[in-house]
Amino acid sequence: MIVSGMVKSSLIDFPGLISCVLFVPGCNYDCFYCHNRSLVDGPYEVLNPDYVTEFLKKRVGMLDGVVISGGEPTLQPDLLQFAQMIRSLGYKLKLDTNGSRPEVVKKLIEERLIDYYAVDYKAPGLDYPEVCGAGAQAEKVLETVKLLLDSNASFEVRTTVYPQLGEGELITMARELPVVPRYVLNRYRKPDKYKDCDTFRIDETPYSQAQIEALAKAMKKYQPNVRT
């Protein structure tokens, strides 16, 4: 398992738990507003696997859980084995995913390796290739969400409310999804690194928190568990 970054202690990434966050490189999406672009196209460092393992062993009893984030963790060929190692240490485990590989999520569900999932739903289905890059398919994400619902897994769906998402787009997204147990709207922040061709989109004025709360209210008819 390639780990390229670590937050040693977090109170906000795993609901209700003190966690460590591990970032893995590589992604099959190319979202224009990505905040971890160096994990997509470099440069990124690679942490010594022994260092990561020893850190987790030493923090047993001090941390409650581990979050595997990215990049896109489901692209890692040894994700299941890595998750098994973390679980063997007694940690709760959360996976952050773009939802594009339901076949991997299905295996994780079958092995009962993940305690909590966070799935990003990034745009109305028809806009996925424009927002996330060529080949991105909302249908795969919806398949992942359905798998999680059908298995009674603990999970949330997340959407970053970048400036181009208006009320109409968000309501479309809310209707495309089945009703989920928790739907979180996150505020957009301008990334430090982005493509020059995306400057016109990146520089648009972000929504205020009050505006996002109003958008959430408009979505509640279709997603009653939406929150900001």
Note the topology:
Layout: E1 5-10, E2 19-24, H1 37-41, H2 49-58, E3 65-70, H3 79-88, E4 92-97, H4 102-111, E5 116-120, H5 128-132, H6 138-150, E6 155-161, H7 167-176, E7 183-187, H8 199-202, H9 209-219, E8 226-227
Parallel strand pairs: 2-3, 3-4, 4-5, 5-6, 6-7, 7-8
Antiparallel strand pairs: 1-2
Structure in a nutshell:
The protein is α/β, with parallel strands linked by helices and 228 residues long. The chain has 9 helices and 8 strands.
Structural class: alpha/beta
Number of helices: 9
Give the second-level CATH assignment, the architecture: Alpha-Beta Barrel
| Integer tally of domains | 1
Strand order of the largest sheet: 1-2-3-4-5-6-7-8
Protein described:
The structure is a single chain. The chain is of the alpha/beta class and about 230 residues long. It has a single domain (about 5-225), classed as Aldolase class I (TIM Barrel, Alpha-Beta Barrel), CATH 3.20.20.70. The chain is about 35% helix and about 20% strand. It is built from nine helices and eight strands. The protein has helices spanning about 35-40, 50-60, 80-90, 100-110, 130, 140-150, 165-175, 200, 210-220; strands at about 5-10, 20-25, 65-70, 90-95, 115-120, 155-160, 185, 225. It has an eight-stranded mixed beta sheet, with helices on one face. Helix 4 runs parallel beside helix 6 (about 140-150). It is globular. The two termini are about 35 Å apart. The mean pLDDT is about 95.
